[in-house]
């Protein structure tokens, strides 16, 4: 698989053309910080998107001294993050009350979720080489296929720079035996640019169990490379390659039937090791004075997860994903009376997924072929429309057709932007769900149907005081049918589980609010709030149940002040997570329990010594709050970090 990723891109062919007016077709002719490259098959100016989105920039990550992408997502409206204990523990992200495998996660456009579970474990994703994080909420399957049922997160890493060179190095130390070292080098010439980065983070951690005293730490090593070459004035080559090797210690729950500690988290010597490799290579060609843009891209990802206990391997899984895409866009002007600008895109995609567990001498694979079409239009410099339809041909289960429509309307007179979107989503059964994992405990179901969803949202963004204060309020509503759930049966003194499609609908609705304000020239405020009502239909058709680990109320607040000609900055932030429901397995029959809400307060500061060196520090959980994100697992208390950053 590794050799395949490294070489297959050499045969990818992409003939692309820069778009005409409004640059509808070609993202590389627009400054990256003004567009959303994830909001469709073609990029769009953020102000012209009808979709609910959030963009987190590298500057914001640096200002808040955020080390993990998961912690950045805690401040995004509609997002709920749950980490199983310490850094390195399984970290799930849910959007708008959906499941974690309903969120599609990409790094530089490469899907990186594990094929075994269909979800991405955010525990190993550091922020050091991240240029921006684009977040789309709502069904996006018409663009991105399976798993984009509730949203998309695309992490875009830093690119090189043309006609120059710069380097950045950082070192950091902190509580719990934590340390961080990172290096980023960027350079290039007139027709090419390249970026190389490396980061190593270690933490001694803390004991995530109420038993014993062993600390559970984590080691993470990440390497990333990115290349862009102008082969001719019309033909561009770009590629990425990323490798992550991490090893996280954790404590396991006791599921030994009849044990007095059944269901409790014990102080065990368990380790989860992960190796992740992903990459992409493609070509872009422009022609006809920018009217035609054609692209082809080949990408792949490979993930191996190994579980160990007392130094011995207990199980492992390996999954890979290969994807080939081609699309062509034609941009043109029409309907002159409406000042109309249009873009039509058609594309084809092939994907192969594989999965192999260690207890079998063979693996599994499945293929999908997809056709997709998109329209984008702009009218009167105030109304913007986007729509797409996709059909997936699956070889292991039913085919699926998904669609989406979005619109935005700018009222220049009042500095108001109205936005709305609707669409359908689909999530295919995972390999675990289709084929099982351990024959004696979890039996697969080859007859599962894909989960299906319909959702819509509508909101208003209002600017006040010449843009010094901006607030966006969005209502969302989404259902889920054919939901895959697990049922249990007691066989021979132990429980055996199997997945089935649940009857009825799971319903999610809520309100998302985000606001930014410049209170004074150097004093800024950012805030977010989400209300989520998420419930599922029980298999027996009884009362609806609240979904697990989705807070009904969540929000964040950040206040920052810069001074000394912006050489110094201090900030404080509060992250609130309301009461959530989780499962307690310690009783004879599992039961639902409420986890108390909590508020975490973090604070930090930085100071630029000169143009090359900067010192910084941060305190997390300033008031040492005691809380749980996953029932039975301890969380981190008050910790502090100090660091030095240099440029050369």
Output the keywords.
648 residues; mainly beta; Maltoporin, Chain A; 5 helices; 36 strands; 4% helix; disordered N terminus
What topology does this entry show?
Blueprint: H1 2-8, E1 35-36, E2 44-45, E3 52-57, H2 58-64, H3 69-73, E4 79-83, E5 91-95, E6 103-107, E7 110-111, E8 130-137, H4 141-144, E9 151-157, E10 164-174, E11 178-188, E12 192-206, E13 216-230, E14 235-250, E15 270-287, E16 292-309, E17 312-334, E18 340-357, E19 364-379, E20 383-394, E21 400-411, E22 416-427, H5 431-435, E23 451-464, E24 469-481, E25 484-491, E26 494-501, E27 505-520, E28 523-536, E29 545-546, E30 553-563, E31 568-577, E32 580-584, E33 591-595, E34 598-608, E35 613-620, E36 639-647
Parallel strand pairs: 6-9
Antiparallel strand pairs: 1-2, 3-8, 4-5, 6-7, 8-9, 10-11, 10-36, 11-12, 12-13, 13-14, 14-15, 15-16, 16-17, 17-18, 18-19, 19-20, 20-21, 21-22, 22-23, 23-24, 24-27, 25-26, 27-28, 28-29, 28-30, 30-31, 31-34, 32-33, 34-35, 35-36
Q: Describe it for me?
A:
With 648 residues, the protein is mostly beta strands. The chain has a single domain (2-647), classed as Maltoporin, Chain A. The chain has a 22-stranded antiparallel beta barrel. It has a 5-stranded mixed β-sheet with strand order 3-8-9-6-7. Strand 6 (103-107) and strand 7 (110-111) form a beta hairpin. The longest helix is centred in the first third of the chain and has 7 residues, at 2-8. The radius of gyration is 24 Å and the shape is globular. The model is unreliable at 1-32 (pLDDT under 50).
